[in-house]
Queue: 3 jobs
Job 1
Amino acid sequence: MMRQRLMVRAAERYQKIDNHKIRTYVRHADNKKKSNAVPLLVCNGLGMSIETIVPFTELLANRTIIHFDAPAVGKSSLPSIPLSLPAYADITIKVIEALGYDKVDLLGISWGGILAQEVTRKYPDKINKLILAVTSAGYGVTIPGPLHVMMELTFPMRYFNRFYREFISAHLYGGTVHDRPRLANEHDRRNIDPSMYGYYSQLMASRSWASTPWLHTVKHQTLIIAGRDDPIIPSVNQKILASLLPNATLEIINCGHLLMVTKAAEVSELVKEFLRKTSAVKAKAV
């Protein structure tokens, strides 16, 4: 855990995007022959800083990975007013451009999957392939999990009380975490705890948003990854996404919401195989 934190800290950079200071971390491909491949941009989950997803993206060593902390997350600055989801999408694309790329593959996880859909809607020419993991067509139309899980998401005490986090993790994340709660604890401990303002800014941006009216217009090749035992965003939501997206493939993993942690090797192989089929497109600097 400490090694990964130090690695991110050593390579992190800050981009001035409009009035925001956005922290970025780019991990370049191990194989120089892959240096011209389209990079993979990661949109992380609600309140999740870069550090939480780096253990997973390290498994994608053959590809350049772009990480960033969304406004109000991790070490990025707090917006003076809460942002809408389209505003988050605008900032995401400006991050890509500031780093010198004009096209990316896009991986969205949980809340980040909602952001990834909006980015693809607004900027279809900037996106090559789309990967949506444990996400939905918007919280306004999400088929919810158990009431106590929804309450946990609304009142994020888990970020601020370690003992409470350890108590609730198995019920919140589901799947393998029931038997191995240590995995969830290590994941959450990597995170830079969000502020309440930042957390609710993200939550409110997604509460008034839904992609169901226009998903049928998204023509990108899409990989959808679901957790069979996901209490936060049950797999029926990913089945809905797959039914609405014209070029989608659905993979259901026997796991819960933290499948990028508990099934990292299996999920990373799915992602690599999906991206490997991408036609040879070069990532041109702008």
Job 2
Amino acid sequence: MKVEFGGLSLGSLRIEIPIIQGGMGVRVSSSSLVSAVSNEGALGVIAAVGLGEECDNEQRDYKMRSRAELTNIIRETRRMTKNPFGVNIMCVLTNYDELVEAAQAESVDVIISGAGLPLRLPSLIKNKKTKLIPIISSSRAAQIICSTWSRRYKRLPDAIIIEGPLAGGHLGYSLAELADEEHFSLDKILTEVLAVTRTFENDKTRIPVIAAGGIFDGKDIARVMRLGASGVQMATRFVCTHECDVSLQYKEAYIAAKKEDIIVIQSPVGMPGRVISNEFVKKVTEGAHVAFGCEYKCLYTCDAQKVNYCIAKALLNAYRGDLNKGFAMCGSNAYRINKIISVKELICELVTETESCLNIPLP
């Protein structure tokens, strides 16, 4: 069967290039990167987590600052692109409802939601044009979301992102599952999720499945599309672009990383997280306590009384370039990046490689 690398249809919304730029929190994917990706015909995605940590808004309350800053970034992105873009809002955020409302008020094209099952998300949506995409890590989660949304809200996801164990940042797998490559590979889980979504589809409704986690080049994109994926989500590759919103030092950490530097740690939020190791990582994983006051209370899953450092502060420090007091999160293939290029160059490279690989007959 010939596979075309064409556009991505999210209900009535058409994305020209079936690549979603993954939302990277604490300002890694903000207006500069997101608008550049969308301007090239892919889907740029703002990450809503961590926006209240560095905000000029006079509101003292973290939740109010986060909402105000998300609104500002959405408006700035819209000034920089006329094409569709999305917002990633994590389920575990204590101000989840407020951030969804802010995205709704600004009529964003797509809301992507993971780090938990977004079972209530359709109930928060007033603008029916906004497309909803959950991020999951198993076929069971796909079944639960599709059946719950269908039963309660008479709607289905406009697409589903399946994030495999090679992804960056916080992961929806246990440490044991991450070590079990035979049973927890992206390709295997993708096939299982496709089997679930097909049971909910009909002549009028399709649920595109987007593959994510360890997707690095056109060869990877072609592989998952041959398995049935409608597109891919990629985050790590977009960090080392000129337009990415992080500091140069953050990007240089990617370029300097060796394969053995990319490790999985147990995050204070109660989930494994893939990061680039440095002296700060070594210190906190050995149990050193980094004094902090929890002014954010940003995640339900983080107990400030029990953890030895604040991951929000660590990631904010990294964003600013102070990697002595923080670390960069990344995907498993970050060590393969060796230079900083433009978003335009990257997407052109990915499209060319994918089309070339799809035109090569399978053995």
Job 3
Amino acid sequence: MESSTHRIVIVGGGAGGLELATKLGNTLGKAGRARVTLVDGNLTHIWKPLLHEVAAGSLDAATDELSYAAQAKWNHFDFIYGRMIGLDRRRRVIQLAGWKGAYLQDEVPPADVHYDTLVLAVGSVCNDFGTPGVREHCIFLDSRQDAERLRREMLERRLAAVAQGRSHILRVAVIGGGATGVELSAELRDANRKLAGYHGHQDSAEDLDIVLIEAGPRLLPALPEDIGLSVEKELRDKLGIRVLTGTAVKRVEADGLFDAKGSKIEVDMMVWAAGIRAPAFLRELDGLESNHIDQLVVRSTLQTTRDTTIFALGDCAACPLGNGVAGNVPPRAQAAHQEAELLARNLSLWVEGKPLLDFHYHDHGSLVSLASFNTFGNLLGNRMIEGWVAHFFYASLYRMHQSALYGSWRTARLMLGNFIAKNTRPLLKLH
């Protein structure tokens, strides 16, 4: 006999999905007004804007990741490990793929999870725009596994050169001049400098050649022009990174890439960070409306246009800006955070059968970190800030995310613990 408790299923434990599960667990779940379940194909969560630091080795994911099972126990919701592959709206079930572990002899069969209300918060993946060779030869930054692969490959190439007593210039191309590409390029330069120090080399600038490639006329096209120009100057003049704007990549091969003119840029490693799209399985998912980059089209209440029992938030949702402004909410962490807050209120109203609230996006500005070198951005307006003030606000973004998950007191203790441990660990993950 099925329970009469309202079943809310959230698919995706990224910034928005996990914050929403935590809020609903501590309200509806704790009060017994609904059963809240989070579904994710990973066992742990790490904030996606930190993946470039994981890739460089400046952040150890093992120390900053959060267990979904532990978070569920602490905050009155359930966690199911699994990857969503389908939806049956008539039966109100999501379909999870079967899986086989490294030690299991038999495969865990596919499973159905029943819902009364479904929230899709599956984030985004890199968009290769159909460019030949990208999938085969480029590294993405969609997951912790991707970031770890980049870090390990760069580390192994460095260790091999040291072991063989030879000098080797490692050539790395980062394709995409948005925030991810810019921050990754700076982080890799900083990490290489630190790594050289651990191996007894004083100057490491000459053994790492980074080229940052952007198809548009300038870096950081989503930010004010003065920020993009300042960041480009910093990358070129102080960090020694080659910046190629107005350069569209048309083909990728194992040893390099080709631009629109057919010129080849020879490199050893390539990272693709040139755009995003929603996961492909959302495309016309059991009749749900999706756009050209597979995002689910939602109303201002965050309900999907063709099924009021299904909601979507974050990068996988095409949510209108509203207030007479054309376009959709940008795929940013701050947008997912705001949507999670609104949806936590709306689902409480939904369970009670009350009218829902409309989502209104508030742009609080943008910040871009160039590792330990500098930080640029704008807050609540178009005036540029940089230096330690910008870095303070940049660091506070992650603390706000932690506070939404842990609460203020636990976040403060985590900050204190990180400060104490700082002098007991190397500056870079070296293994």
